[in-house]
Amino acid sequence: MGIKRISTGSPFEKKAGYSRAVVDGDMVYVAGTTGYDYETMQMPDDVQVQADNCFLTIEKALKEAGTSLKDVVRAHYYITDANDAEKVFEITGRYFAEVRPAATMVVCGLIKPEMKVEIEVTARIGAGDSA
């Protein structure tokens, strides 16, 4: 089985030379995803709206890969302000309260000042079936 590359059509993917997700066997690697609303190409100011948008984009990529958030085994959360951690946890908890992947949150700078959160995940197709 070959590698399948998934694109959301974001102009950033072509410009930076990456795929939104890559499927390799039963593993799905979803690239770091920021909170853009890809329908409007706008970045909301609210960190929780950004985090929710991250998950909507991630869900879409996972669905195209033949899986879902229930199969996520690893998550990395990058935030630009430690004071936003609790706000982001409210969103991550909404999506992952039952899944509970291994996760890490890092406070760092992101490539554009309007970006407040970036999320990347790794999923194993069928992992949620054994939980």
Structure, explained:
The protein contains 3 helices and 6 strands. With 131 residues, the chain is of the alpha+beta class. It has a single domain, classed as 60s Ribosomal Protein L30, Chain: A. A 6-stranded mixed β-sheet has the order 1-2-3-6-4-5, with helices on one face. Helix 2 packs parallel to helix 3. The longest helix has 18 residues.
State the main characteristics:
single chain, 131 residues, alpha+beta, 60s Ribosomal Protein L30, Chain: A, six-stranded mixed β-sheet, 27% helix
Looking at CATH, the homologous superfamily is RutC-like
N to C succession of SSEs: EHEEHEHEE
Mean pLDDT across every amino acid position: 94
* Major pleated sheet: 6 strands, mixed
Overall shape: it is globular
Uncertain runs are none
Provide the β-strand percentage band: 25-35%
Helix/strand/pairing category: alpha+beta
Indicate the CATH architecture.
2-Layer Sandwich
- N-to-C terminal Cα separation, in Å? 26 Å
Major sheet strand order: 1-2-3-6-4-5
Helix content class:
25-40%
CATH class: Alpha Beta
CATH-derived topology: 60s Ribosomal Protein L30, Chain: A
Summarize the structure.
This protein is α+β, with helices and mostly antiparallel strands and 131 residues long.
Compile the SSE list and pairings.
Blueprint: E1 4-6, H1 11-16, E2 21-24, E3 27-34, H2 47-64, E4 72-79, H3 85-96, E5 102-107, E6 117-124
Parallel strand pairs: 4-5
Antiparallel strand pairs: 1-2, 2-3, 3-6, 4-6
Helix pairs in contact: 2-3
